[in-house]
Each structure stands twice: as C-alpha cells, then as structure tokens.
C-alpha cells in the first residue's frame, strides 16, 4: 500500500494533499490477493464501504470507483448491495480505464506465457491464468496449442453481473478512459512485426500486430524450449492498432469489443523481454468527511490497494 500512497502523492500531481485541502479523506482498501476472483474482492470493498459509512461524521454521500479492475470490482459490489437492499450511500460511481467490455492481452503474449512455463518459471502464466485475469479477458488462451476463447470464468462472471442488474442504478455513473479521444489508431499496422527476440534462448521468436481473417499469424515462438510454434487466430478484429473501444456498454454485451492498449517497437539490444501484462490496479472512491483513521488501518491490511471516496471523503482500490 505504501507504493500506492507514494504514487498518488508524489507524482506529477499531489492527489492526496489536494483532496485533503478540499475537505476530503482518501481511504485505501487492500485485498489479501488482488488476482483473486472479482466476486471475492468485491466483498472486501463492500465491507470498506460499510465501515466508511459507519465511521463518517457527516451525511455526505460517497464516491466509489476504481482504476482498471478496481472499477469492475466497485461496479459489481455496488450493484450487488442494491439487489440486497443495502444502503451503500454512494452518490457517484467512477471507473477509470476499466475493461467493462473485456480486457485485451495479445494472444501471442498469452502463448509466450505458456511457452516460458516450460522452463519451470510460470510467473507470467500465473498472472494470465488468475481468476481475475480470466474474468476480464475478452479472449483467453488456456494452452500453448489451445484455441483462444472466452474463459468459462468470464462467462460465469458476466452471468453474476447480470443477476445484480449489471450496473448500480442509484449513483451517477462516470467513466474515464485514457486515450487519444479522436478515434485515430495508434499507427500499429495489422500483421506487421512488432517485436523480435535475439539470443540463444528465443532465437527466431517474433510477435505480430493482431490482424483480421482466418489463420492470422500473431506470433512465432522458437528457441531452446523447442519450436517453431506458430500462433494464429481466426476472425479477430485488428485490436492492436485500433483506437480504444467506447465503454458505454456492459461486460455482458452480446458482441463485446475489448478495450485495446498495445505498444509496438523493435528491441534496441540483443535480448528482448516479452512479458504479458498483469491485471491492473483498482480504485474505489467514496465521499465522507472523516476516514483518515480508516484509511490508515485498511491500508496496512494488505499489499494491494482499493479506494473509497465521498464528497468529503474518498476511497480508492488498486487491484
């Protein structure tokens, strides 16, 4: 939690100090395991919201939200509280860069995580295969020679989200997306090589930007671990070079189009690291007036973070 506090306070903008100057309190809520199921971590957030309300000295409504996965955790938690007729006292829900229509980790990188696991180091594979990751990914690859598909964990999560109404109905809903905002792509041409690996371990390994069509090649994995393994997809959109998809539809939309965020470029040295991205942190914001003590005690419970904020108080949760 200390790293999150330092990042919020000591970055380009002193976020925490500015909140306090405006009479608000920031509450950081930690998860025991941030890669755990979104349904499980939503229970932690629910407890934090109720505790914030109980310790609040005024009647200001809360603002609850989160970054990336945290926005989805907050969305489910608030919606479930409403179906259970629990007063969450939330006036505003905020989601910042949350993949409501599905997250995107390139299939080539997911395959590379399986390939690396053959060395005995399954660190990246654990990240990709965690419950939270599978619940968010638009398409998941369950084996090196597998077929990309929606994970059963995501299917069940979408069903649970639908059961609670998909979105909270009481608070005002605000979504913030980090991107160009003009609908222009990022210049990554579909089908073009974006990264190649040199050196004895992965000689001949390369990755290509996602392209459309049948048997579209997205990666070739080769090296001392065996190969070459050619990784392909069928009928995928050109996700890597596309502008971010609009976030105004729920995760249970019948034809989801995932939010895309990819980088491309050639390695400058002899060795290249190809790492699949891990689930991003979440944040919950609530508005109350006195949560400083709550913020401190919650923050020390876990190494992950969540936040809740209210007009006079704020809570945030990174996953």
Top keywords for this entry?
single chain, 319 residues, alpha/beta, 9 helices, 10 strands, 15% strand
Can you describe what's shown?
- There is one protein chain.
- The chain folds into two domains: 1-97 and 280-319, no CATH class; 105-156 and 189-243 and 267-277, no CATH class.
- Helices cover 29% and strands 15% of the residues.
- The protein is built from nine helices and ten strands.
- It has helices at 2-10, 15-21, 38-55, 69-83, 107-117, 123-129, 131-136, 152-163, 292-299; strands at residues 26-28, 62-67, 90-96, 172-176, 193-196, 206-208, 216-221, 229-233, 306-309, 314-317.
- Strand 2, helix 4 (69-83) and strand 3 form a beta-alpha-beta unit.
- Helix 3 crosses helix 4 (69-83) and helix 5 packs across helix 6.
- The radius of gyration is 21 Å and the shape is elongated.
